[in-house]
Amino acid sequence: QPDQTHPDDVYSMVIVSNRLPVDYDEQPDGTPGWKTSPGGLVTALEPIMRAADGAWVGWAGVADREFAPFENDGISIVPVPLSEDEIQEYYEGFSNDTLWPLYHDVIAPPTYHREWWDAYVRVNRRFAEAAARAADEGATVWVQDYQLQLVPKMLRETRPDLVIGFFNHIPFPAYGIYSQLPWRRQVIEGLLGADVIGFQRQADAGNFQRAVRRLYGYTTRGAVVEVPEGDDVRRVIARHFPISIDAEGFEQLARRPDVQARAKEIREGLGNPKTVMLGVDRLDYTKGIRHRLKAFGELLRDGRLSVSDASLVQVASPSRERVETYRQLRDEIELTVGRLNGDYSTISHQAIAYLHHGYPREEMAALYLAADVMLVTALRDGMNLVAKEYVASRFDEDGVLVLSEFAGAADELRQSVLVNPHDIEGLKDAMVAAAEMPRKERARRMRALRRRVRDYDVARWSADFLETLTGNATIRPGVRDD
Ligand code: F6P
After folding, report:
1. Integer Cα distance of 368 and 449 in angstroms
2. What is this structure's pTM?
3. Ligand 1 centroid, distance to 144 Cα (angstroms)
4. What b/e string do you get for 178-206 counting C-beta neighbours within 10 Å, with b at 16 or more?
5. Which of 14, 152, 330, 427 could, after both became Cys, cross-link 193 (CB 3.0–4.6 A)?
């Protein structure tokens, strides 16, 4: 049973995200429990929150359950309840069937429903109220991601004393795409309630600024958006802060003898092929898993790879399983994997080891160490922390990262083998080149990649964001005159 904290406790630092770092996980016999929740957001923010004396406001991942605030692993958790209808309309609907496909360049068609929008507004208000209750006078509230874009404005209206940051973990699309959104003005207005709006890539910040100019006509100067407020102008900073990982933590994990032994065991379990290729993704249509499987299948078909010298491990962690596009994707991927294994596997060598599970960090580090080639072939991705985790784990300066230019990580990880995953021939050539790359070149590239990931880790990312936030908030009207 977790330690309860007092519902009236207030904090100087509050993180607000759709999902808490832990999901409620009840055993079949009714025993309550909590497990780490999926996705890059939690991976990135957990270490920061453990260091700060802050509270984390978010949803516990189950319907119609109210939980009192509690402490988990050094973090104060403030759960926000969602009803079954709200999960369907706000989370599965507006967040993941409207905004998600729209912001990922309409890879899947977005659905627009007015009822979903109403639920989005209602739930954003509930999160804003919970955050306002948890925030001390003058506190910093850092709102995360596309599910909560209206929270900054709602917070500013009720709590002008707060310093408000927002970080968008996913891409922000070009105006030609964004402008489809029937509520495009309200979303921009919601975001502009923040003092600083962070994006993954420079291009995302540029797209946002263009949307502000087109929809509101506000002036933008460099990273600053000038938001008229009465006779005054409020400065909002909108710029990129590429998110990262706890690089040191991953390296430490990978150096552990038990993790290295596990990596060896994984390779043996696969029949010790010459090349182990690895894909690790949430099972999401943005990740380019189909393209990767197609390329791998054709390489086997054409005899450029054979199952005795190359094996693909595909970890696809379950995600948003009640959203139709995700169900269809799972069926397609499992059909493809089944076909390829049927066509090319032998008794001693399986073409594809497909794992529909999430794994703890130790197992991930072992998989990274076991993989000669890491395949990140996203069609569109805010950042992709898997790419950075792979690099951080490879203290042996070996392994090749094949990375999509459509993932945010491509801006920083220039020494990877960059690919356009839509170009199947190009992807196939890159996979073969990665498998055949000489040791010296692998080491040269990996050294450069590691330098970047170590230098700009998640602590730097959050420090950078929070310093910019404090800096900007002190010169805003009202605060400046105090
Ligand atoms: O950043 C992408 C993101 O949607 C995060 O907000 C979230 O934590 C993660 O992916 C997993 O998605 P979900 O919470 O929908 O399972």
Report:
1. 15
2. 0.95
3. 10
4. beebebbebbbbbbbbbbbbbbbbebbbb
5. 152
